[in-house]
Amino acid sequence: MIRVGIVGATGYVGEELVRILMQHPESHIINLTSQSYVGKSFSQIYHNFEGICNTICEEEDIEKLSEEADVIFLALPHGIASKKVNASILKKAKVIDLGADFRLKNANVYEQWYNTEHFSPELLKEAVYGLCEIKRDQIQKSNLIANPGCYTTCTILSLYPLLKENVIDEDSIIVDAKSGVSGAGRALSLDIHYIECTESIKAYKIASHRHTPEIEQELGEACKKDITISFTPHLIPMNRGILATCYGKLKKKVTWDEIMNIYKKYYEKEQFIRLMNKGVYPETRWVKGSNYCDIGFSVDERTGRIIVIGAIDNLVKGAAGQAVQNMNILFGLKENTGLNQIPMFP
Ligand SMILES: NC(=O)C1=CN([C@@H]2O[C@H](COP(=O)(O)OP(=O)(O)OC[C@H]3O[C@@H](n4cnc5c(N)ncnc54)[C@H](OP(=O)(O)O)[C@@H]3O)[C@@H](O)[C@H]2O)C=CC1
Ligand SMILES: CC(=O)N[C@@H](CCC(=O)OP(=O)(O)O)C(=O)O
């Protein structure tokens, strides 16, 4: 059994990690940590776990945890993981960070977009960006995984084959993405009060969202160029789900079938990526509660653009599910172990 510790277990991502790992046949949760709920059992915080997980939440002690656990998941706000992780911890346990501290390769870029200091830039070289379908060979050999963000997972998976195969103009990319409110986490803030976000849709952090450099970094690596994209996130009054609508100018005339062959080249064997048939476009409810990323597209002959739609559950493929997929790769398990949840509909 893989001994697992979850730091920040009481947030939405932590809760989802517990839900998935409790059903994982090879994992055993040995420690759940919290900041505000030390001494409380997990089922007192999340009553859906009554009779299922009565583990008492403890104060975080990552040094001690690294002696006892095989893998530590960090589900903390940005800026904390880079203070906590160090080389000595990584010698003893593998770390999967679900925040953003190790995703960007350049600490200056991180500091610029996150407005906070990076406390362990020396670890950025060894951190692997844990987008499983694209980086599994590197993930396997690493002790520090930077689990991708939710918008970024959906966007990069949706566009990656087109950039790898040089099909679209790299600087023409526009991503219009929508997220459910759980994407903002459980901590209280005015923007996510019921009245502030129900029955309304809004764009936010226009031309300034911190997922922009992450998408540019990974798609730039795919096409071996520095690229800039326009990325606009929106808050949607639903609990879970990300829908990314991605636009790109085609470099030459292509048919839908030709593009589908490109997607198949990269994703045909991927269990968690489902390519939609012609005329079918992903919906968030088709992936809710599951680790799937659904992708559909249309070739617009009139404008010479391709429009790709991607959908994921932000808490599963966009966070905890992908983190467990990373754990499976790290420990040589079948990648789908514990991750075969069928999407909930409705
Ligand atoms: N929500 C989502 O869809 C996604 C989130 N992420 C990322 O995952 C991470 C966790 O997100 P999420 O679960 O939504 O966030 P939440 O706000 O719901 O949870 C944060 C967790 O971190 C703990 N915590 C907060 N501040 C501190 C601190 N100063 N020191 C130690 N622990 C602290 C909280 O403890 P307590 O409850 O005890 O206060 C809680 O357990 C973030 O980096 C987020 O950006 C990534 C992908 C998707
Ligand atoms: C709706 C909402 O507020 N979403 C969050 C994204 C959450 C996420 O996946 O991102 P990180 O892991 O990079 O924090 C946001 O826009 O900041």
From TrEMBL:
Chief location bin: cytoplasm
Alphabetical keyword list: Amino-acid biosynthesis, Arginine biosynthesis, Cytoplasm, NADP, Oxidoreductase
CDD domains associated with the record: AGPR_1_C, AGPR_1_N
Protein name: N-acetyl-gamma-glutamyl-phosphate reductase
Top-level taxon: Bacteria
Subcellular location: Cytoplasm
Provenance organism: Defluviitalea raffinosedens
Claim: Transcription regulation is one of the keywords in the record: no
Listed Pfam families: Semialdhyde_dh, Semialdhyde_dhC_1
Keyword hit for NADP: yes
Role: Catalyzes the NADPH-dependent reduction of N-acetyl-5-glutamyl phosphate to yield N-acetyl-L-glutamate 5-semialdehyde.
HAMAP family registered for this protein in UniProt: ArgC_type1
Enzyme Commission number: 1.2.1.38
GO molecular function: N-acetyl-gamma-glutamyl-phosphate reductase activity; NAD binding; NADP+ binding
GO biological process: L-arginine biosynthetic process
NCBIfam families xrefs: argC
InterPro entries given in the database record: AGPR (IPR050085), AGPR_AS (IPR023013), AGPR_dimerisation_dom (IPR058924), AGPR_type-1 (IPR000706), NAD(P)-bd_dom_sf (IPR036291), Semialdehyde_DH_NAD-bd (IPR000534)
Family per record: Belongs to the NAGSA dehydrogenase family. Type 1 subfamily.
Domain Semialdehyde dehydrogenase NAD-binding: 3-142
A cellular-component GO term for this protein: cytoplasm
Record-linked SUPFAM superfamilies: Glyceraldehyde-3-phosphate dehydrogenase-like, C-terminal domain (SSF55347), NAD(P)-binding Rossmann-fold domains (SSF51735)
Pathway in which this enzyme or protein is active: Amino-acid biosynthesis; L-arginine biosynthesis; N(2)-acetyl-L-ornithine from L-glutamate: step 3/4
Annotated active site: 150
UniProt enzyme class: oxidoreductase
Reactions listed under catalytic activity: N-acetyl-L-glutamate 5-semialdehyde + phosphate + NADP(+) = N-acetyl-L-glutamyl 5-phosphate + NADPH + H(+)
